[in-house]
Amino acid sequence: MSIESVRAFLAEKAPDVTIVELQRSSATVTLAAEWNVKPAQIAKTLSLKVGERNLLLVTCGDSRLDNKKVKAVLGGKARMLPAEAAAALTGHPVGGVCPFGLATPLPIYCDVLLRSFDIVVPAAGSTHSAMRINPLRMAALIGAEWVDVCEASPTS
Length: 156
Description:
The protein is an alpha/beta fold. Helices cover 28% and strands 24% of the residues.
């Protein structure tokens, strides 16, 4: 079960970070309301194919990819991986994909808009789990590279 791989990752690298299991889905709007955070603070992890490379991109929950920036920074047009491919590569189901405890090592990028917050809330390997973490710490734990590839939502 993928939440177990996230637990194992955190136990080794960040034992002070706690996974919270939820009664409802960790979908952006629901989680933002329940955790009293802005939708932008929900750190969504996108499973992408850029050229021939598979990669993960962690972004603000309400931001959108800027195709011109993606092409300039990541070297090509980004396409979402099909749900089955994302689950196979990450070990996490769609809706629970996160950059922790991956089944396959992948390049991971974090969009710079996440740095606007002291705390972000990524999923934790299942559709009913999440955690609170500082975005700078998250990026350091997962070895992510910071990139500017998103446009902020007008409501952020």
